What we know:
Layout: E1 4-5, H1 16-32, E2 39-41, E3 49-51, H2 53-59, H3 64-71, H4 74-83, E4 89-92, E5 99-107, E6 113-121, E7 127-134
Parallel strand pairs: 1-5, 3-7
Antiparallel strand pairs: 2-3, 4-5, 5-6, 6-7
Amino acid sequence: MKVYQSKQKSISGSDYGEVYPLVLAIYKEIRKKSKRKPYIRSAYFKKQKIFLDYFWEHLHHKNSHDRVRRLKLYACALDLIKNCKYEPHLLDNVNRRSVMLYRFYGKTKEGTEFSVQIMADKRSGKKYFISVFPK
């Protein structure tokens, strides 16, 4: 597997109160550009839309330590989705056969390795950014 070298640094901070406002500012900037669901376009999927709203639902199911860990990598994950053209690792979801999972691997500017997970609905063709986490 090839690893994408991100141009972004991970967001600094050690607790949720420090990291969350910085990530929310990035998200609001993207949300302003669309009248409906916020999205970014992916280089790997030939400039198809990757919707970002599912990430926030997934994040609220995690504990606070895990939330901070994932939020710190948010800017790097968006950079990877926008610019990465490397082949991802494909996973079939055993519980839901109508869903395909793509896992991309990246590295922050500081050298921390992380994974980005994108869910694709086979019926509708829509793609959702689900998760980012350190390796």
